[in-house]
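Intended use. Records like the one below are meant for learning the mapping from a protein sequence to its folded structure. Do not use them to infer anything beyond what is encoded.
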Amino acid sequence: MHLLDEARINFTRSRSFGSLKEAKSAIYKSKTSKGKKLKKHVRKTIESLNLDWVEREDLKKISVAFPTRGRSEICLDAITNCLELAKYPSTIQFVLAIDDDDQKHNTVIYEFMEKNPKIDIRIISKPRREFKDFSMYTNDLASASTGYWFFMYNDDLFIETKEWDEVVRSLDDNRIYQPATPNFEKKKKKKLPKNFIANPLIPKTWMDALGKVVYEKDPWADKWLMDLTKKLNCRVHLQELHLYNRRFKESGDAYLNDKTFKDRQSRSNQYKRRRDRDKSHLGGIGSQERAESLLEAYNALKKLFRKRP
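Structure written out for the chain above:
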């Protein structure tokens, strides 16, 4: 098992560990405000990466795409983790949506790109969107992606499966796949619908047929995808690929209880209050426009994705 998976030690930003023994020796106890002990992943510095870089243009590329704001080190953790656990890192593409007013974050990522020109990273830089338009990030990312598979990722995720890219390439392209996220699923067990979607793998055939990934007027793109894939009966829970959700609510990692997380929670709550006052607000959940978008998408995708009895 990989170092990140075995050690599970407290998040460390300033040093690299050359062995599992050295990593475990750095374990220390930390508590949240509720007094719960935390166990977190170790971060290897960028300089310590030792990737087996083999160009494989014959293999299908995977686009790992996510919006990110004010989280340079967390973002680089996500990127390096994906590369370290891939069998063929050269086949992984990263597409990032970074707001144009997030200058420090943009600068750090561009510097990383200059130091690592082999890594395929694309940046979309546009004015910051209001929360109601959050799903537009997803479609922007999909439009800029060139991979056969579109991985709707987050900057606060870790992959836990070695050679995960080969798992993805073995999948049929007439399904939507939700990787297993044990710590998220355990935390939300009583609230999660059976067909929940959070970070799906979506094939290029979906984008080709629909012209987009999600409906843009509902900020919770995952809920729209849940409704659509339930109707199509094309969603598969992918137990062969495991993720670890580092979001503060799921992991208790105090480092992730940052300005970005708090701002996102605040903007989400404000939108929910507005939505609850008017169920048809901005074409969101419960609106006629959203229902029509689901029907339109269903008709466009049913020949390719609908599971036959």
